[in-house]
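Quick sanity check, Transglycosylase SLT domain-containing protein:
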Amino acid sequence: MKRNILLTFLTILVLLNSAAIGYYVYHDQKEHEENEEPPFHLMKSSDVDFPTTFSLAGEPVPLERIDVAEAFKKELIVNTYLHSHTIQVLKNAPRYFHIIEPILKAEGVPNDFKYLAVIESSLNPLAVSYAGATGIWQLMSATAKELGLEVTNDVDERYHVEKATRAACTYLKKAYQKFGSWTLAAASYNGGMNMLTRQMDRQKEKNFYDLLLGEETGRYVYRMLALKQIMEEPHLYDFYVDHLYPVEPTTQVKVTKNIKNLADFAQEHGISYKTLKRFNPWLRQTSLKVGKHKTYYIAIPENKQAYK
């Protein structure tokens, strides 16, 4: 009797011990599996698609060079994972490229320079930098005046997309004539022609990709390359943007006399003061003084009902 009880007790101990060992083995294995990295083919890559060949304004980018390839890839990564910024740029592109592209073509400036406007202002015609550079092409006041734009208390044509684009073209063509390279012309738009000339003379180099420049100007062209690649091949970077902002057709109202009150002017043309300023941000006051022999053209949206 006692022997049977002892055997039963020992059997129970063995079973309990086996169950405990099984539990801990299972638990440890499951915890290990949960912490283990997923198979390689299931992991989401943090790298980006990289082109095998590339050009800017018809000039080849030497991607076979380690320094060039890595600088380009850096800007691709930054702008691929800067989602909100890049999505907004993609949505804005049809509206502003519709204006910019024909002007670039007419002025003889390569179409790729529309991406310069992208990196300057994110295609925001109201953009103002901490240094005071203004508009879609981010022009400083003195530079804008040199390029033929009107910058006064009443009128600031840096906010005028068409006129500012022509002014930017004037600068870029002058830079191209000086350097013989559109890539260097792009770099000079950021750093200035004088700075770029000094660095080229000091370093005895004539190719942008051989120049050591400050971080801002050094990254500038690569940012332009990155936005060109992403905006031309957005699906490669997981951007599938619907509902792009539409082109907004306008009619131009010729103005040769002072406008005492722009709110009244807006009402006379069937729109609000807010809508008038939306389409004409270059009008900086509530009135407009028109000098002798001066003419302005004020844009009025064709679809007025869309803004009421």
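Posting the structure with no commentary besides this: Strands lie at 55-56, 59-60, 250-255, 296-301.
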